[in-house]
Every structure is written in C-alpha cells, then in structure tokens.
Amino acid sequence: MINWGIIGCGNVTEVKSGPAFNKVAGSRLMAVMRRNAALAGDYAKRHKVPKFYTDAEDLINDKEVNAVYVATPPGSHKEYGIAAIRAGKPVYIEKPMALNYKECQEINEASEKYGIPVFVAYYRRTLPGFLRVKEFIEKGIIGKVQFVQLQLFKAPSDNERDGKLPWRVDPAISGGGHFFDLASHQLDWLDFVFGPIQQVKSIVRNYSGLYKAEDFVTAEFSFPDNITGTGTWCFGSPESNSRDIIEIIGSEGSIKFSTFSFESIEVVNGSGRKRYVNERPEHVQLYLIEKIVQSLEGRGISPSTGNSAARTAKVMDEIVAEYYKEEK
Question: How many beta carbons lie within 10 A of that of residue 246, not counting itself?
C-alpha cells in the first residue's frame, strides 16, 4: 500500500489531487501538512485524513508515510523534494517542478544518488481527451504533422489590478509569471507527443505594468522530425480577447483543442469536420496518480518523471532568459 503524505494542502489539493489518493487502488492519503494548524486540521477532518502536521519534517519522518506529494509553491519544491528523497521516500511534485532548470537538476541528482523516483504533476499526459489527440496524430488522421500553433490569452485578475499580487507572479516564489504556471502544462504535453523541444527563439515583455514578472511571451520552437511550433501567451489581455487554443496542422488536416477549458476537440480532414468531447475528470490528477502508484508497485510506468519535467523547465528558462537578464 502506498501511504501518501501531502506537504502543502492548499487549493490545488482540494479537488484536483487530494481526494484522488484515496480513489486509486493500492493508495491512500495518510497525512497532510500545513503551517497553519487550524487549516491543516480542517483539511484532515473534511477529507478524513488520519494525521496532520504543521512541520514538513515531521510528515516526511512519519514511519507510516512512504511517499510524499509536494504541493507547495515552486520556491520550496527543491527543499521538500530532496528532503523526501533523502528519507528514502518517492516524491510527487507539483508543476512546475522547481523554480528553474538548475533546481530540477539538483532534485534529479538526489534521485539518482539515493535511488528514489521522482514524479511531477504534468497530468495532461494521462487525461483521456489529450491521449485521444495523441492517438489521432499517431494514426495519421491529419497526415504528417508539420507545425503547431498555440495561443493563451487571459485578463488580469481584479486582485492584480488592485495591487494584491498572487504568488504566481512573484518570480522568487514561482520562477516567473503566469507563463511558468500555465505554459508549463502546454510545453510539457507537446514534449510528450512530439519529443523534446530542440530550439527556442522568443520575445518576452511586460505590457500591463501590474507586476515585474513577464506577462507577454511569444516563442518559436522546433521538435524532432522537422516539426515546428509557435506560441503566444498574454496575461494582460482584455477579457474580450481571452482564448485557449492549440492547433496542430498536418499535411492532410488539423486538430484544434484547448488546454484548460476542456472544449471539444475539433478535427478537420478529407472526411470533413468532426467534434469529440474532451471531458474534464472530477479529479484531474487521478489518472497520473494511478500511473505513479502502479510504477511504485512495479506494475507500470509513469509518463511524467523528474527527467521529463526538467526538460520543460529548461525550455521555459531558455524562453525567458533575456527578459530576466535585463531585469537583473
């Protein structure tokens, strides 16, 4: 039985991940940790978790906990991830894996040194709708893939406009702005489908002036097999311009779908135009957690690991490198 402990039982664990640990065969949620004792106790009570802690070290050293899920902001992923590894406990880390590629490397070096596996919460590698798109590509229903176009535009939140900035736009805590939080999912999934990104060119700006992190990114990138891609991310957009689109163009058609809004998958080819449901699971991390548990039990392989997640971190670092060089 894989007995999980969660470090950082915040919003992401309420529905997306936390309940899934008790719904996967061979898995259960044994303990949670949050610095605020009242909030930790409340979470444990509501989710029927046997134990709660206010200190991460106590959770990691709990003899009944044999795997750790790090669900804190990225700024503490390296610290808690390596601590779990040194304690001999497999670790599942929220995405992005760490503040930057260098920290990801340090986690993976510890993983190799101690022989303890690392997994990262890039769960779109296991979601049915996204696997369906991958299957369409592999079956050649749009011919040979030639290029990918990606657009993600979002309006600033009211809090951002009021100067009440979330940690996600503080590079010291998150690694960058919303680009790091959201584009990481997209870039990782493209790595999963087409292979590692090989070359990157980018322009990075802050147009809104609401915070110091980037809020506009445009990038060109390439994959193996002569496939190219372009992406534009804007987090200072008016609401009327909001969009969430990935379009994969092939020699005989195209596939269009969304990353976050779970809109229908649209396929256009010689047979016409068809739409396929892309259903949002109740707990979006359940399928990946299931794969991780199977991997730990020797019954399968997780598609998302520390090594694959580090590749995504490296690409993100390369995309924003000039912007943060200028900032310094």
Answer: 21
